[in-house]
Design goal:
Blueprint: H1 26-38, E1 46-53, E2 71-75, H2 78-88, E3 117-126, E4 132-135
Antiparallel strand pairs: 1-2, 1-3, 2-4
């Protein structure tokens, strides 16, 4: 018998599922809001974040993705700030050195690691910003192509 219950039973609540309805979760509402904002229908309030490297220079985690130094971004949340910075880096999908078809390296960025970078909020709820990198140099040569 399935853990979701039987159709003959009255409403069965499965402890392994969320009570949210389609399109009503925090993530779904954020995606809907993002698509509306991206379409230019409204101006969103953004925060300014500093991403600061916190790991020592000899930390082996830097072997996977090089330190890019301090970066300042305009983003919605601290997690979004990490994504904004990582999006500026070159991705396997953009060059001819993909490790497998349809594989992205966005999640391997040093900016996504809380062990390598910390995120500090500098300013809050600014309507005059556009989501993106405001200050700092993010190198795009973090991935080497197959042919040089």
């Amino acid at each position: 018998m399935s853990s979701t219950g039987n159709r003959n039973e009255e409403k069965h609540v499965d402890p392994g599922t969320s009570p949210t309805e389609f399109g009503q979760s925090v993530e779904s509402r954020a995606q809907i809001r993002d698509s509306t904002t991206a379409a230019g229908n409204e101006r969103e309030l953004l925060n300014i974040y500093r991403l600061v490297p916190i790991a020592q220079a000899d930390d082996p985690r830097w072997d996977n993705s090089p330190c890019q130094g301090e970066v300042v971004v305009a983003a919605r949340t601290p997690g979004d700030a990490r994504i904004v910075a990582a999006e500026r880096e070159l991705d396997f999908m953009e060059i001819d050195s993909a490790p497998a078809e349809d594989v992205t390296t966005r999640n391997a960025s040093a900016f996504r690691s809380e062990k390598l970078y910390t995120v500090i909020e500098v300013a809050h709820s600014r309507p005059d910003l556009t989501r993106g990198v405001l200050k700092g140099n993010i190198s795009v040569d973090t991935i080497k192509p197959v042919q040089i």
